[in-house]
Write a structure and sequence with these properties.
349 residues; 20 helices; mainly alpha; elongated
């Protein structure tokens, strides 16, 4: 035993120390917990070693207090604890209150390590554990902190799943979180939750709760975006169902020229349903150059092997668009379709 404890003094050997005490603890949890408490108090081994050992067997009130004490004394890094405690066994018998205390210790008073909390909360859900009351409120506070939005794509899956679970129980707070997220600077780097590849659970949950509200929330955020670069509307095309949401997109777009500009930048001829929305906007705002330019960009996204090299008068192009609605429906976005400028020939299918 003394030799094992000697190993625990080496920061690099925390895993080895933890594995030994984890096995020992499965046979005598009470005695193991007491001995870890003694070592933690005396500082006989590193804080990392104590945390590694604690994570190896079932957690309890003593384990929670032990972790809090180590962090409070500065004997172990919060980030190390956040990673070490992702092992499943120690969470099995913790109460929601105890788990919340662990999260608070890991995250810190300034929420500096909030991304670790979203990972732990997602694992808690995977264990089938309840998420309600003060624990649910703490989870919401974590998601509502800017640091919760991960700097890399992998971390978004934990955020996405947690946001979906919480939104199902509190839709109003979920939609408020969506509005807040779209206005964060990191949205421009990762485009979450509109961009593909970061998880679909939260978006699909919001959409199932209120299809109109989720689409209009994104459109409104795009309209109010102070940068005016169209990034939010551009990313909407990755999520919106242009056919199923045509009534929402068209109705919202016809409210004003500013609304029309946003919708024009959020639809694409590379997906079904573009032309009916586009021509409705053309008819309503034929002289708005911003609407024209964004629809032109969308019209040139017909898909692989298809292009629209149109450079003629917009009025003639608008008329051509109305014809192409029928062409598109009949041909199913026919590959090879070319829309020529007036005077250069008719459309080819």
């Amino acid at each position: 035993m003394a030799a094992v404890e000697e190993v625990g003094k080496d920061r690099r050997a925390a895993g080895l120390f933890g594995a030994y005490w984890g096995q020992y603890g499965r046979h005598d949890e009470a005695r193991t917990g007491a001995r870890l408490d003694d070592m933690a108090t005396a500082g006989d081994v590193t804080g990392r070693a104590i945390v590694s050992a604690t994570s190896e067997f079932v957690g309890d009130a003593g384990a929670v207090a032990r972790i809090e004490g180590l962090i409070a004394r500065g004997w172990v890094e919060r980030t190390f604890v956040g990673v070490a405690l992702r092992r499943g066994g120690w969470r099995a018998h913790l109460t929601q209150q105890q788990f919340r205390r662990v999260l608070a210790a890991v995250v810190g008073p300034d929420f500096a390590n909030v991304s670790d909390a979203t990972e732990l909360l997602t694992l808690w859900l995977s264990d089938g554990r309840p998420l309600a009351g003060r624990l649910a409120d703490y989870a919401w506070r974590c998601l509502e902190h800017p640091g919760a939005l991960p700097p890399t794509g992998v971390g978004f899956y934990a955020y996405d799943r947690l946001a979906a679970a919480l939104t199902k129980k509190d839709p109003a707070r979920g939609f408020a979180l969506l509005e807040w997220t779209l206005r964060q600077p990191l949205f421009r780097a990762r485009s979450y939750p509109l961009g593909r590849g970061y998880g679909d659970a939260w978006w699909e949950t919001l959409r199932a709760l209120d299809r109109r509200r989720v689409v209009e929330t994104v459109l409104t955020a795009a309209l109010e975006d102070p940068t005016g670069d169209g990034a939010i509307a551009w990313r909407l095309r990755d999520r919106v169902d242009q056919e199923g949401d045509a009534d929402i997109l068209t109705g919202w777009g016809l409210e004003s020229e500013g609304h029309a500009v946003v919708v024009a930048g959020g639809i694409s001829a590379g997906r079904p349903g573009f032309w009916p929305i586009a021509t409705a906007l053309i008819d309503a705002y034929p002289e708005d150059g911003r609407v024209r330019s964004r629809l032109t960009m969308g019209a040139r996204e017909l898909g692989e092997d298809v292009y629209v090299p149109y450079d003629g008068p917009w009025e003639a192009y608008a008329a051509q668009c109305r014809i192409d609605i029928d062409i598109e429906r009949r041909a199913g976005m026919a590959r090879g379709l070319r829309i020529r400028s007036p005077g250069r020939g008719d459309e080819e299918g």
